[in-house]
Amino acid sequence: MAPLTPHWAQPSHGDTQEVIINEAEFTSKSLSKTTVPPFGVFAKMDFTPCTVAEGGPTYATVQMGRNKHLNLNSDLLYINHSCEPSLIFDTGNLNILAGPKGLQPGDELTFFYPSTEWSMAQPFDCGCGKPACRGRISGASDMTDAELEGVWLNGHIRELLEERKATQAATATATAGKNGDLTKPSENGVSEQSALPRDTAADQTAQALQDALDSAEKVVEASRRALLSYLQSLQHSEVYGGKTNGGALDFSGLGGVQGLPAAGSQRRGPTSRELSGEMGGDTTILV
Ligand SMILES: [Zn+2]
User: Fold this and answer.
1) CATH assignment, 17-159
2) What ipTM is given for this predicted complex?
């Protein structure tokens, strides 16, 4: 949060929120002074001090509907963004809830700004340092579905995302109509190259969908080859009764794993748990 000049009496939430002001931009923050169970109410966005904002979003508003923003008019403005937030700003119900881990005194108070904001007045580069950090934060409208996966989002953001998806699908259908059938199967059933003309490829949405189609086609092709070779191997074993022939590998008698003693001997391979170290290295592997 950029430096603010508060126009309200401070502290506004002194029982529950400790505000730490730093001179440098984006370094002020808030800590919890209270314990809240998971999904319990940390604070309410009451009117007043909240007021409905005239016009669009500003650095001092949170979005509460597709065209509705509210001025917080309180120290709640000092709650930073995090990509792994401790709070849920449920602006539809005017509640600020603890996240799934609850809150302890000293925990930093944060929420995921794109969970309320569709398009932000002041985008910034997130420095939360979390493994799932999304980097540039400018509102949900600029984020992919994958970037928004697993995050609590307000109803108006979910609605707007659904509309975006419908618009993208309609654009893709229109593009496909303009350029003919994109999935014309050839004689052997393999889809033909379906590259879009250059002018269309410049459109990022069309390009993203084209990439998705290309990779889906690769999966289809790989599955087709796998099926084919499996059917061929069945045919082979029917003809030769499963015996070694002409360089084909004979797996019978290997206990299912080539190069290892057959099942029933003392040796066993490590489990995936052991390999991942979860069992702490105290597991003896018999040899
Ligand atoms: Zn982040």
Assistant:
1) 2.170.270.10
2) 0.99
